[in-house]
Write a structure and sequence with these properties.
Distance between the termini: 68 Å
CATH superfamily of one domain: Alkaline Phosphatase, subunit A
Oligomer: single chain
Strand order of the largest sheet: 7-5-4-8-1-10-11-2-12
CATH architecture of one domain: 3-Layer(aba) Sandwich
Radius of gyration: 25 Å
Helix content: 25-40%
Largest sheet: 9 strands, mixed
Number of helices: 15
Structural class: alpha/beta
Mean pLDDT: 93
Shape: globular
């Protein structure tokens, strides 16, 4: 006998089926748009986790030399300027320059002209944070486990998801499953047991100041203040100006997963000496330059160390409208914004150099300029590292062969070019020697004082062997032979840089004995290094010869990069 459902039961069934259908449709919509939902959630989370207060002025400490020395008795001031993601071809010092050389960089170029251009200057890593660790410690960052660049917890998974959905990419990232526990972003950094350049100089009576990017940890023991800096104006986040500011011009790269993440995650924020976040005073590059000038003026009567770590020209690509308007001859919007950022960077360096001159400090100040790594593929500008192959996030020359200049009019003759390979970790012993500081004897210092080589007082070369490691990618440069390794995909590339400085002719098949020899050197070097202090959370495919705006092809050469 068949029974007919009662009216309340029929209504309940309709409601249940309707609700299930609605939830199913909503779930399907969310799944289809999961990338957009994830990016939206990142923005909401950042707004909640990082409130930013209104702008406030910074007051820098000043005063006389604490040891009572006259200007003739004081050691030299030291100004270390680091750009972020600056490509070899971004500067005009060697006949290059953005937009076909139409965007001059006279102030940065002047450091090379007035001192020495290191034509084979190398970054410590193909990404930013390990390079900064080497710069300030004088050591391979792998000696203390700083192998990978710290990233926010959500970034690898979201960028990996976006990359897997990218129709331009034929090779996809490899993500561990389950994702390993890495720890909080602020806990990933350079351990307090490392002795930094700032600590060495502070012990010699220097006033030490940091401005800009840090990326070496934010937990106790890792902050700028804990690592030897008396004062620190920190880049608390990464927008150059608010996205909707009337004075900013933005360029978004929708083809790049990293760029899409950054636009959602970044805020316009600074902090001073570990205080609360506040809005910087103007376009970020100009703001750092303004504050650097104030530091120089406040410390003109005592020796000081200024570490000026610009964010430019790192993404997100944002320029002032004035700089953008000044480059109307550049047709590509993306390239024009990028070139305008370089214009601001060069202007800022010029203002720092001028402040040294006007305060009577130019002759006895050691100025060092470099970049943390080469230009990235993900900005979609193919000539950024010309003539070198590769990009940031690789150990091909485009990723690690960087601008590297120094001037000290009292000690370095103008117009020098030094061609032997040097490295970021040489900055610490070079600056320490200039200041009369003694290097630590309880640990290996991998760098060396470059001044005797530059002045022709020391025979030979600073380094016969240099090594790089980031998980699946490794490289070594030994007596002019360069071996690049990547596993996956299980590839080796061998180049004789003395004959082939741009890595065009792979000799690995012709010289297997040389490959084996350098592999053995890499193994021996690795045996002296520490394992990573935190695990890799992704292996990302990097096309060696194409920027990210261009589709992959099956026969493209590529590496995998662990981070």
């Amino acid at each position: 006998m068949t029974t007919t459902p009662t009216r309340p039961r029929r209504a309940w069934l309709r409601w249940t089926l309707g609700t299930a259908l609605t939830l199913g449709i909503a779930g399907g919509v969310l799944w289809i748009n999961r990338s957009a939902v994830a990016l939206w959630a990142v923005g909401i989370m950042m707004d909640w986790r990082m409130p930013v207060g209104p702008h406030r002025e910074v007051t820098w400490n000043g005063g006389p030399d604490p040891r009572g020395r006259s200007s003739n008795e004081r050691p030299p001031n030291i100004v270390l300027i680091m750009a972020d993601d600056l490509g070899w071809n971004d500067l005009t010092w060697n006949g290059g320059g953005a937009a076909g050389g139409t965007v001059p960089t006279p102030h940065i170029d002047s450091i090379a002209a007035a001192g020495v251009a290191f034509t084979n200057g190398y970054a410590a890593n193909g990404t930013c944070a390990p390079s900064r660790a080497a710069l300030l410690s004088g050591r391979y960052p792998t000696r203390f486990g700083f192998e990978f660049t710290p990233t926010p917890a959500a970034m690898p998974r979201i960028v990996g998801m976006l990359s897997r959905e990218d129709p331009l990419r034929t090779r996809k990232p490899i993500l561990p499953d389950p994702m390993p526990a890495v720890g909080d972003f602020d806990e990933l950094g350079m351990p307090g047991s490392e002795i930094t350049l700032a600590e060495l100089l502070r012990d010699e009576g220097y006033h030490t100041v940091h401005i800009g990017k840090w990326h070496l940890g934010g937990s106790p023991g890792m902050t700028p203040g804990d690592q030897g800096f008396d004062e620190s104006l920190l880049m608390a986040n990464g927008l150059y100006l608010p996205v909707d500011d009337p004075n900013v011009v933005n360029a978004r790269q929708e083809f790049d997963p990293i760029d899409r993440f950054l636009w959602k995650a970044m805020k316009y924020a600074a902090s001073f000496n570990g205080g609360e976040a506040f809005a910087p005073g103007g376009y970020l590059t100009d703001y750092y330059s303004d504050e650097a000038v104030k530091v120089i003026e406040a410390n003109r009567d005592r020796p000081f160390f200024l570490y000026l770590a610009y964010w430019a020209p790192h993404t997100p690509l944002q320029a002032t409208r004035a700089d953008y308007d000044a480059l109307s001859h550049i047709e590509s919007h993306r390239e024009r914004v990028y070139a305008a950022m370089l214009r601001a960077l060069d202007r800022g360096v010029g203002r720092v150099l001028e402040a040294l001159r006007t305060n009577g400090l130019e002759d006895d100040t050691l100025v060092i300029f470099t970049s943390d790594n080469g230009g990235p593929a993900y900005i979609g500008l193919p000539a950024v590292n010309k003539p070198f192959r590769g990009w940031k996030i690789s150990f091909f020359e485009g990723g690690i062969h960087v601008p590297f200049f120094a001037k000290w009019p009292a000690r370095i003759p103008a117009g020098r070019r030094y061609d032997a390979p040097i490295h970021h970790f040489d900055v610490l012993p070079t600056a320490a020697a200039a200041a009369g500081a003694t290097l630590p004897t309880d640990r290996t210092i991998d760098g060396t004082d470059l001044l005797p080589y530059v002045r022709g007082e020391q025979p030979g070369v600073p380094h016969r062997k240099l090594f790089w490691r980031s998980g699946s990618s490794q490289s070594a440069l030994i007596d002019g032979w360069k071996l690049n390794l990547s596993d996956p995909p299980g590839r080796a590339w061998l180049f004789d840089l003395r004959q082939d400085p741009t890595e065009q002719h792979d000799l690995s098949a012709e010289r297997p004995e040389k490959v084996a020899e350098i592999r053995a050197e890499i193994d021996a070097h690795n045996s002296t290094q520490q394992p990573p202090a935190w695990p890799s959370v992704a292996d990302m495919p990097i096309n060696i010869d194409k920027d990210t705006s261009v589709p992959d092809a099956p026969d493209d050469e590529y590496i995998y990069w662990s981070n």
